[in-house]
Amino acid sequence: MSKRVIVIGGGIIGLCSAYYLQKEGHQVTIVDQSNLDAGASYVNAGYLSPSHIIPLSAPGVMKKGLKWMFNASSPLYIKPRLESDFLKWVWAFNKSCNLSHVNKAIPAIKSIAVWSQDLYDDIKKDEHFTFQYEKKGLLMLCQTEKMLEEEVHTVQLAKREGLAAKMIAPEELKILEPNAKIEAKGAAFYQCDSHTTPHEFMDEMKAHLKAAGVQFFKNEKVEDLEVSDKRIQSITTDKQVLKADEFVLAAGSWSHMLSKKLGLRLLLQAGKGYRINTTQITGITLPAILAEAKVAVTPMNGFTRFAGTMEIAGINHNINHIRVEAIAEAASRYYPEVTLNSEEKNNAASGLRPVSPDGLPYIGKSSKCENLTIATGHAMMGWSMATATGKLVSEIINDKSTSIPTQMFHPDRRF
In 3D, which of 357, 284, 353 has the Cα closest to residue 86? Predict the structure, then answer.
């Protein structure tokens, strides 16, 4: 039966939810407070990374976070502040940083990321999209023996999960990347990964959805929800009142604000990331993560992108130039022939990634509301998990059995 569905949020998760819902015959409307041309869905590294099986909340991360708290250029920066939501999130994050949680999370992360990759394949083929989508794998470049040891462990975990991965020596790096000088003691090579140019996919998907009859309301902020008997009756934006049968909350880092109106406290913090683009000839043909610096490098369509950092400092789009400089310095440290110039650094952009305390997304319906499906909290894995998340949203709204287990992603889970 066709339903009227409003998707709150027009990022990658919202668009993919709309895509699968309209394919099932529903009347879909997307509402977003932005102009639908900026943010995390446009400035990310473009990775489809089943290799990223270890959640952000892993043993030792909280300790590193405390150490890095006083270093504005560190890969992970948590700005301390006396806010109730932030303190609850920190407590839950710290509680999640244990081996037991990691072991439970790995299969869940792998299943949704691998499935998502297959769904990108299907979309490109079925809709004749032309966005860049290359299956070249991903390098984890290591400059220290300590990091190499960590990667050996992660490669073993990946292989145990059936993912294609191996360690490679510096000599092999030269064969894989003959036109880029690399300073590294070695690398992990995850052949299971692939990469894209984000804005190409976003633009093609928006055009496709509009042609399919999906209605878009952009630059329109959702201000209130009318709720009765555990059901949303309508939403009020700064311009109009909209009614629907079902609602999808895919508003990224802003999702927890709206969830409060339902008496649901989604623990969520905005994790700011930065990107620098260069059209210089870098010789880089393989995506790589500069392991110690936590900087992602992606050869995109017509340019190379350097992206990174996780800055948990509230919702703002301020550019911290110390962190931009840290990304540029890391690029030159690992690729000595690459120097990002002042103009490129001045053109850096940021995006806010919604980070849950346990490194897993929220996907599903809360007991607080019968006709709201939540899809947020993906942290750095939003791009990798987007298509599968959209498909799950559609299956949940259609009352179908989900293609993969979703219990680990339940929005009512406790930490």
Answer: 357
